[in-house]
UniProtKB/TrEMBL annotation:
It comes from Reichenbachiella carrageenanivorans. It is a multi-pass membrane protein. This is FtsX-like permease family protein. Its main location: membrane. Belongs to the ABC-4 integral membrane protein family. LolC/E subfamily. Keywords: Cell membrane, Membrane, Transmembrane, Transmembrane helix.
């Protein structure tokens, strides 16, 4: 058996007496365990939030989006659309006109983001599971309809049962100087509310979907579009399709996947996750001071044992390893039990959804959890490294006891 490990294990698990030093060591181990478990749980929540956002955006956004590299809009020529459709893996093209506009209903008004979509958007059924009232439709053959977010419905007091009150949209025009008539400064169009969706608060409070012909008239775009949303074959490799399409379209257009369409948000999430990891690691680092003091006091308590070892010819490295192993025992038991506890808590939340987010989405109402093995690896390595560093100075001090005696 490894002699330093055997001695350090006897020191830690000694059944003859539990003195103050043992109690501090046990408390240190518990602090490391709780800190490790907390870090695993928080990281799993961040992973779950990222997965939740991808699920929501997967309902709202197309897998690929084509936008102009410069400017706000472009004219999608037949040649352009043919090039896109000839790309292997592309199934459908949805034309989009998107911009901000003022919406008024009765006496209430607000600024919203209006998104005009071609008719195949309805046929794709991307938002069919998000409809809470009314129907997913743009027209019934006679009347055009808008699909509004639930937050907009609440803020404006929109009633789908009122067949006489329409949504009024206002958009500023590019007018020449000297115009006198106020009506020349904005365009106006009315449309009936036909459905209410609920995805996520950011979308529910801001987005209105309408037929593309409605926004083309309201914004006076005359054949121009702000983007093209592309449906792809799920069995094909998306990055390959994206690279091929970007090469085909050239530098005049950018092709974005669903993550790139929300790159800033995902970047913020990753930065927050990194900061949480650093903060919790610092907390464990502060807690490891207890390990430093417990090992330092253990060195003082075991001074006669250390002198006996030196008297029997033990080298400094052996004594140093004894106390390094003592710190390693605290680290591995604390980190190991913390990893197990964090996994159990995360699994319970993931399986049973005990803790609610307090908000309702079309995907989940409980705090989302995603357990990723790499989080366990980095957490374990970080905790073990911190506790090992806290054990170095007491171990060096113990190895010098023989020198001090001489």
């Amino acid at each position: 058996m490894n002699l330093p490990f055997f001695i350090s294990k006897r020191y830690f698990f000694s059944k003859k007496k539990k003195n103050f030093i043992n109690i501090i060591a046990i408390i240190s181990m518990l602090v490391v365990s709780i800190g490790t478990a907390s870090l695993i749980i928080v990281l799993s929540v961040f992973n779950g939030m990222e997965g939740l956002l991808r699920s929501i955006y997967g309902t709202f956004d197309a897998p690929l989006q084509v936008m102009p590299a410069a400017g706000k809009s472009f004219v999608p020529t037949e040649d352009l659309k043919q090039k896109i459709m000839e790309t292997d893996g592309i199934l459908d093209i949805t034309e989009v006109i998107e911009d901000n506009a003022l919406i008024r209903y009765s006496d209430a008004q607000m600024i919203v983001k209006i998104k005009g979509m071609s008719d195949n958007f309805i046929e794709q059924g991307r938002m069919k599971n998000a409809i809470r009232q009314g129907e997913l439709k743009f027209d019934d053959g006679k009347t055009a309809y808008a699909i509004i977010g639930r937050g907009i419905q609440f803020n404006l007091g929109v009633s789908l049962r009122n067949d006489f009150l329409a949504l009024q949209f206002f958009y500023p025009k590019n007018v020449k100087p000297g115009a006198v008539d106020p009506h020349q400064y904005y365009s106006r169009a009315n449309i009936m509310p036909g459905g209410v969706f609920a995805l996520e608060q950011q979308y529910d409070d801001n987005y209105v979907f309408v037929p593309i012909s409605f926004t083309e008239k309201l914004f006076d775009y005359k054949g121009k579009r702000t983007s093209l949303e592309l449906m792809v074959d799920p069995e094909k490799d998306l990055p390959t399709i994206q690279r091929s399409l970007a090469q085909t379209l050239g530098s005049d257009f950018v092709v974005l996947n669903s993550d790139q369409q929300h790159a800033d948000l995902y970047k913020v999430l990753k930065i927050e996750k990194l900061f949480v990891f650093v903060i919790f690691s610092m907390i464990v680092g502060i807690a490891s001071i207890n390990i430093f003091f417990s090992l330092s006091m253990l060195v003082i308590e075991k001074k006669p044992d250390i002198h006996s070892l030196f008297a029997m010819g033990a080298p400094k490295q052996l004594v140093r390893k004894i106390f390094l192993f003592e710190g390693a025992i605290i680290a591995f038991i604390g980190a190991g039990s913390g990893l197990v506890l964090g996994f159990i808590c995360s699994w319970i939340q993931k399986t049973y959804g005990i803790i609610s987010m307090g908000i309702s989405t079309s995907v989940t109402q409980a705090y989302p959890i995603e357990i990723i093995p790499v989080d366990f690896i980095f957490t374990a390595l970080t905790i073990i490294l911190i506790t090992f560093i806290a054990s170095i100075q007491p171990a060096i001090r113990a190895s010098k006891q023989g020198v001090n005696k001489g």
